[in-house]
Amino acid sequence: TLQIHYHSMLHNTPSLQGHIKSQNWKIRVDLRDKEVTYYNEYASFVDNHTLMSKNKRGAERTVTANKIVLAMGGRPNYPDIPGATEFGITSDDIFSLKSHPGKTLCVGASYISLECAGFLNGLGVDTTVMVRSILLRGFDKTCADRIGTYMENSGVKFVKKAVPTKIERVKEADGDSPQELLVTYTQDGQEYTATYNTVLFAIGRTALTSKVNPDAIGLKYEPNGKVPVTEAEQTNVENVYALGDIIQAPELTPLAIQSGRLLAKRLFGGSSLLTDYVNVPTTVFTPLEYGSCGLSEEAAIAKYGEENIEVYHAQHVPTEHTVWEDGKDAQNYAKIICVIPENEKVVGFHYLGPNAGEVTGGFSLGVIMGATKADFDRLVGIHPTSSEVFTTLKITKRSGQSIDIEDC
Fold first, then answer.
1. Is 126 helix (H, G, I), strand (E, B) or coil?
2. β 104-107/198-201 pair status
3. What phi and psi values does residue 203 have, to the nearest 5 degrees?
4. What are phi and psi of 8, to 5 degrees?
5. What are phi and psi of 381, to 5 degrees?
6. How far is CA 118 from CA 125, 148, 209, 310, in A?
7. Where are the beta strands (DSSP E) in 110-219?
8. CA nearest 276: which of 293, 292, 296?
9. Buried b / exposed e along 304-326 (16+ C-beta atoms within 10 A)
10. Hey, is 283 helix, strand or coil?
11. Contact 292, 360 (CB under 8 A)
12. CA dist., res. 238 & res. 246, Å (int)
């Protein structure tokens, strides 16, 4: 694993923050160029056509509209335990640290938690992940388990079936000496303690729906802020729509952008095209990258029945990893999930390996267009690439045969 001293990253913190600010400014310029009025203000409903907004100086204004789209996003959760908000941080804070995080505990098994743990470990930080149940809930379990094994082999420690119950600061930071936090947690019914310098929570996010006074218009929403919508993103209030992280959908920025584009075209451009919330390409940037599109194996079985599913899979060492001994542990994994009665239509695509985003982004077009296993078979692979394996998949999971492929 390539390791970069953490202080090198700290040295670049101003440029990282500057990049984020430049992106925010670019968006504001784009809005202005498109003649969109932008108010940097907090808004709340007065009625279903009226919003009251307030800026940071306390000045208020009233805004009315025929249609209103809610896309407030969400904020990271903290657990309801002593010391969590006083001493813990979230992924929002990780690039704003003024000093080395020291021994770090990442609480949660989400992709954000594993991504943070992965790059911290790669930077040479002593990193532990505390997991309540399973890794990457909602993703393909086989792939999630392989990621966990790879990360453990790479030096990330895991505390499984455990939840924190209290955090105490037992030593203040002093010069170059970091603070020390005593974490109390339960595991299999027993109580334990461990000391860390940083505790990062990545246990989900809460949608900011309650901040806009939804009760004033009778808007329905869940305790976690999620707003129920139709397939056209319409809420129970006829002229109010919702999208992005505040609805029950994958919390991905590109998906929210696409949903907004399609919604605008339906409302004002005469389109009828709906957002596909199932075949969504995504990549988890863990040390062993994971790209997927469509259904997990578990979801496919639940939808179609196990007898109607055929899983083709294989594993191999990427060509670029064969030139050094350590790299031979970095095995790619490829899987497609097919529906037998539908001419083996591919309903799930899963890939573990280098450049997962690039590989998944290309193949996802085939999944979206209804490609079958035969379509994958007639595709000419590019040699020597990791994606080539998807053009030669032959071993089915039900056969029980070895899935190892020799590199050439």
1. coil
2. parallel
3. -115, 25
4. -65, -40
5. -75, 155
6. 10, 10, 32, 32
7. 127-131, 157-160, 162-171, 180-187, 190-196, 198-201, 205-207
8. 293
9. beeeebbbbbbbbbbbebeeeee
10. strand
11. yes
12. 17
Nearest to 313, CA basis, from 355, 346, 289: 346
DSSP secondary structure code for residue 260 in this structure: H
How many helices and strands (H and E) does the chain possess? Answer: 9, 20
Nearest to 205 by CA among 85, 91, 42, 82: 91
The alpha carbon torsion through 26, 32, 35, 39 (nearest 10 deg) reads 100
Helix (H) or strand (E) run with residue 312 in it? strand 309-316
Give the catalytic positions in this structure: 383
Encoding tokens for residue 33? 């160029």
Let me know: does 181 contact 86? Beta carbons within 8 Å.
Answer: no
Q: Which residue has the tokens 């969400």?
A: 74
Give the residue from 313, 281, 277, 301 showing the smallest Cα distance to 143. 313
Q: Among candidates 82, 371, 408, which has minimal Cα distance to 390?
A: 371
- Find the angle CA(157)-CA(118)-CA(194) to the nearest 5 degrees: 35
Structure tokens of 323? 């030139």
- pLDDT per residue rounded down to tens, the chain (408 residues): 444 556 565 556 677 778 888 988 999 999 999 999 999 999 999 999 999 999 999 999 999 999 999 999 999 999 999 999 999 999 989 888 888 999 999 999 999 999 999 999 999 999 999 999 999 999 999 999 999 999 999 999 999 999 999 999 999 998 888 999 999 999 999 999 999 999 999 999 999 999 999 999 999 999 999 999 999 999 999 999 999 999 999 999 999 999 999 999 999 999 999 999 999 999 999 999 999 999 999 999 999 999 999 999 999 887 777 766 565 566 799 999 999 999 999 999 999 999 999 999 999 999 999 999 999 999 999 988 889 999 999 999 999 999 988 655
Which residues, in sequence order, are bridge partners of residue 105?
128, 199
Cis peptide before 384 (omega within 30 of 0): yes
